[in-house]
Amino acid sequence: MRVLIIHGVVKMPLDDRKKRILFAVVTDYIMTAEPIGSRTIAKKYNMGISSATIRNEMADLEEMGYLEQPHTSAGRIPSDKGYRFYVDTILQNFMKEDLSPPPRVREEVIAEFDEIVKKYAKILADITHHATVAKMPKLNPDKIKRLQLIPVASNKMIMVVITDTGIVKNYLLNLCQSVDRNVFEFLNNLLNDKIAGKSEKAIFNFLEKELKDTLGDMAFMADELIKTILLSLKQLQETDVYTDGTLHILDFPEYKDLNKAKNFLSLLDNKSLLNEVLEPVDDFVDVKIGRENRFEEMRELSVIKTTYKINDRVVGTIGIIGPTRMDYRRLISELTLMTRELSNLLSSIYNDEI
Amino acid sequence: MRVLIIHGVVKMPLDDRKKRILFAVVTDYIMTAEPIGSRTIAKKYNMGISSATIRNEMADLEEMGYLEQPHTSAGRIPSDKGYRFYVDTILQNFMKEDLSPPPRVREEVIAEFDEIVKKYAKILADITHHATVAKMPKLNPDKIKRLQLIPVASNKMIMVVITDTGIVKNYLLNLCQSVDRNVFEFLNNLLNDKIAGKSEKAIFNFLEKELKDTLGDMAFMADELIKTILLSLKQLQETDVYTDGTLHILDFPEYKDLNKAKNFLSLLDNKSLLNEVLEPVDDFVDVKIGRENRFEEMRELSVIKTTYKINDRVVGTIGIIGPTRMDYRRLISELTLMTRELSNLLSSIYNDEI
DNA sequence: TATTAGCACTCTCATTCATTGAGTGCTAAT
DNA sequence: ATTAGCACTCAATGAATGAGAGTGCTAATA
After folding, report:
1. Considering the domain boundaries, does residue A91 fall inside one?
2. What's one GO BP annotation on this UniProt entry (chains A, B) (predicted)?
C-alpha cells in the first residue's frame, strides 16, 4: 500500500471512517446526480457520528483530492481521484468473486462476425441504458484464408476475400476485356497459392514481380487485380467501430445542457477517436475516469472496456461510455458478463479449424 | 386552377399581393425562425404598401389557413398549407428550368453498392446541414445472379450470394460432416442452375422437393443449405435504411428543447418507420410537409425525397428530413443534383450487363 | 484530544413583479 | 381602398427577494 509522508508524519491515505464517507458520497452521487452534504450523509447512511464530524472529514477528503465542491455552499461530489479509489476497491472485490458465468442457452446463429458483435453491443446498451462501443478486429494480411473470384458478367467479376475469422469482403472488378469462364479456376488457384496465408511482404512481392508474367495473355487484368487486392488489404487493416444506445445519454441530467449533449454525441460519431479509445488492454477490465482519458474532449467522461476473444486470442474490444458519474459496479459487472458470453459464442463458431 | 366558391361569390384563392406577402413570410421565417410581423414585412421587403394594409392581408391569409399565429401578439408564421403553396410554386419553376446537370468528373470507385449510396447521403448531409436518409434496394428472389459456395475448412463453407446490382451477402455454414473439396463444383453448378434468376416459387419448390434427392450421399448438408438459402432470401428482401448528419438537427432553434431533439433523434433511429417514409415515389421529387406525413410523430417534420436509379430503373430512395421550417428551394435543388449524380454513377458501374 | 452543538455566512434556485417591445385589431381619416 | 393612430395583448427580460441547503469556525463537551 502506498504511504504518504508529509512533514515527516507518516499518514495512511485513508482511514476507515474516511473511506466509508467517501463511499457514501460516491454511491449517493451516482444515484442522485446531486452534490451531497454532511447532514444528508449523517441522516441517510447512519454513520453514528454527527454532521459536524463528517463535515471535518469531508474537508480533509477534499484537501486530499478525493472530493470536490461545485461551489462554496453546495455539498461535495467525487473527483476523478475519488471515483478511482471507489473503482479500484470494486475491482478488487470483483477479482475475489467467483466469475464463472451462468452459461446461457446458445441460440442458433447464422450471421457474419460483425453482426454478432453488433448484436451484443446493442443488448449491452439496452440493459445498461448507456452508450456502448464495439471495435471489430483488425487483421493482418497473413490472416487471409481464401480469395475467390466469381464471374458475374463477361467483363465483370467479384472478388471475395475471406479471413480466418470468417470476415468476408467483396469487390466488384470491371475489366476492359472479356474473360473466359474456364480461366477462373486457374486464377483462383493462383491467388490462393500466392496470397492466402502469406505475409504482407510476400504478397507485395508477388503482385509487383510475378503476377503480370504468370498471367500470360490475361495480363490485361493485372492492374485491376492489383488495385483490388491492395484495397482489400488496406480495408482489412482498418478497424471498424460500432456504437449503440447513444441516445441514452440524453436521459442523464448532466446532458440536459444541449451543448454538452451535442459534444458528447459528436464524440460518439467520431469513429477514429473511438478507435483509439478502444485500444485493447490486457487487463481483466479497464476503467478510465475523466481526465485519465488521453483526450481532452473526454475529461468529463468515463470508459469501461474489456476485450473479447476467440479461444483466448483477443479479437476486439467492447466498452461502455458515459459521464464520470456512472454506476461503475453495475456496469463493470454487466460488461464482463456480456463479454464473456460473446467470447464463448464466437469461440464456438469460429473455432480454430477455420 | 382550383377556385373557391363561398356564399356564391367566386373567389380566387390568392391574389398577387397576398401571394407576395405569403412568400415574404415564408422566406423570412425560413431564415430567421422568428414569427414575422406586418411592420417588418413593410420595411424589409418594401412592398409599397403600409403595414396596416399588410396587417389586413395577413389577417385574410390567416383566415384562409395559409398563416398561423403562435400567440395573439406575435407575428405570423406559415402553416403547413402555406408551405405547401410555396413548395408547389417552387416545384413548378424547377420543372421549367433546364435540368441538365453539370456533369462532374467521375472518380474512380471500387466499392460496394451500399457504400456508394452511403457516401452520397453523407455528402448531401454535409452540404445541406440536414439529416439525410437513404434507402437501399429491396430485391426480388429472381434477382439472384449467382450463388457460390467456398470451402474454408473441412466442415465449414461460406455461401456467397450475388444479386444483379452487385450486392453480396455471405453466410457461414457449419456442417456436421466433412465435404470433399471436389464436390464444390457440382454444388455450385447445381445451385446456380436451380436458384439463380429463378422465381421465389421455383426456388421454394426446388428446396422442398428436389434438393435432398439430387444431393445423394451429400444429403446431410441439405438442412443447412436450405436454412441458409431461406435466410438469404429473407435478408435480400429486407431493405436497409441508412441515416447521416442526424446531429445537424441540434443546430436548429426548433430543437433547443431537449425533449423535441430527443424525439426527433429517436425517430431517426427508427429504421422501420424511415423505411416506410421512404417508400419510392414516381414524381420528380416528393415533398411531404408536416401533417401531410402519415405518421403522427412527424407532424412537425418535412421530408423531401426522390428516387435514384440504375438506367431508369428505380433502385432506392434518398431524402432529407428536418423541421417544416426548411429551405425547400435550396434543399430540393441540392437533393435533385446529388441524386442525378448518384444515378449516373451507379448506372455506369452496374450497367445492364451485370 | 476527539467530537459535537451552534451560529454566522455563502451561494443557488425559484418566485415575483415591473418593464419593455413587438405586434395586433379596430376606428376614423384620407 | 388605404393608411395613420391608438389601445391592448402577450412573451421575454431582468431585478429583487426569500427560502433552503450547505459550509467553516468557535466554543463547549465527553
Report:
1. no
2. negative regulation of DNA-templated transcription
- CA-CA distances (angstroms) from residue A104 to A98, A265, A340? 17, 33, 11
Of B13, B17, B12, B21, nearest in space to B40 by CA:
B21
The CATH number linked to A160 is 3.30.390.60
What is the Cα–Cα distance from A219 to A238, expressed in whole angstroms? 30
What size, in residues, is chain A?
Answer: 354
Q: Is B353 in contact with A153 (Cβ distance < 8 A)?
A: yes
Helices B51-64 and B16-32 cross at an angle (nearest 10°) of: 90
For residue A104, pLDDT beyond 90: no
Contact B260, B254 (CB under 8 A): yes
Task: Specify the amino acid at residue A66.
Answer: Y
Q: Which of residues 35-64 of A touch strand D (CB under 7 A)?
A: 35-40, 51-52, 55, 58-59, 62
For residue B89, is it within any domain? no
Q: Which domain holds residue A253?
A: 107-137+240-349
Span CA (A73) to C1' (D26), Å = 19
In this complex, the residue with its CA at the shortest distance from the C1' of nucleotide C3 is A53
Q: Amino acid identity, residue B309?
A: K
pLDDT digits (tens, 9 = 90+) for B82-111: 999 999 999 988 877 755 655 555 555 566
A318-346 per-position pLDDT tens digit: 999 999 999 999 999 999 999 999 999 98
Residue B180 lies in a domain: yes
